[in-house]
Amino acid sequence: MLNIVVLVSGGGTNLQAIIDGIDNGFIKNTKIVGVISNNYGVYSLERAKKAGIESFVVSPKDYPDRDAFNDGLLEKVKSLNPDLIVLAGFLVVIPEKMIDAYPNKIINIHPSLIPSFCGTGYYGLKVHEAALARGVKISGATVHYVDKGTDTGPIIMQKAVEVKEGDTPKVLQQRIMEEAEWKILPAAINKIANS
Ligand code: GAR
Fold first, then answer.
1. Per-residue pLDDT of the chain (195 residues; tens, 9 = 90+)
2. pTM of the model
């Protein structure tokens, strides 16, 4: 059994895709042992509650500085003893200490085809704004291992999605979530859990 901790910051549709994938048997031999959010009051926490999964908030607001927050986050993760840490829309730079403590055991979903539109400053809607500004006709999503760079770790899975005439960042974001993210994140977890 692969015990996973899911780290979130917002609405948690990717978290929901993992919960559903486990429930419907698409993801095998996997258990979510906890959900951690860096923000209070986000819908991800409701999703965890509805699924009967323990959830926690580790917010920078509750710590005197970034180092203390990073230590608090690592401590909470360690207390859950995961085999794999899944960043599902976790919009926080992962502390080096955490990467050292969990080498090749942290994965991330990014809403573009890496190496396009990734790295520092490319997160959430900003990724889709940049893709539309560049005029690409294809975008997509990537699941990759997390290393010390930003979006530089080994790629596990990618899926391409068509950009359509008249797309707004929100419309493109939604299509990429539906056609790519909600599929490849559960698939990557299942692959890791069963290989
Ligand atoms: C997702 O589109 C995810 O790929 C992105 O944030 C969104 C979170 O949505 N992550 C990044 O941009 C990471 N750099 P969700 O809370 O509904 O899963």
1. 999 999 999 999 999 999 999 999 999 999 999 999 999 999 999 999 999 999 999 999 999 999 999 999 999 999 999 999 999 999 999 999 999 999 999 999 999 999 999 999 999 999 999 999 999 999 999 999 999 999 999 999 999 999 999 999 999 999 999 999 999 999 999 999 999
2. 0.97
Q: How many domains, in total, are found in the chain?
A: 1
Q: Strands of 2-8's sheet, edge to edge?
A: 55-57, 30-37, 2-8, 84-87, 106-110, 138-145, 155-162
Q: Is 144 a catalytic residue?
A: no
Q: Which domain holds residue 164?
A: 2-193
| Atom of ligand 1 at shortest range from CA of 176 | 2
Indicate whether residue 88 lines ligand 1 (CB < 6 A).
Answer: yes
- Residue with CA nearest ligand 1 atom 17: 13
Give the distance (Å) from ligand 1 centre to CA of residue 171.
14
Q: Which of 177, 179, 182, 184 to mutate to test the pocket of ligand 1 (most atoms within 8 A of CB)?
A: 177
Q: In sequence order, which ranges of 83-161 are alpha helices (DSSP H)?
A: 96-101, 125-134
CA gap 151, 153 in Å, rounded = 6
Residue found by looking up tokens 């979510």 in the block: 32
CATH number of the domain encompassing residue 56? 3.40.50.170
**Cα of 67 to ligand 1 centre, how many Å?**
24
Q: Whose CA is nearest to atom 11 of ligand 1?
A: 123
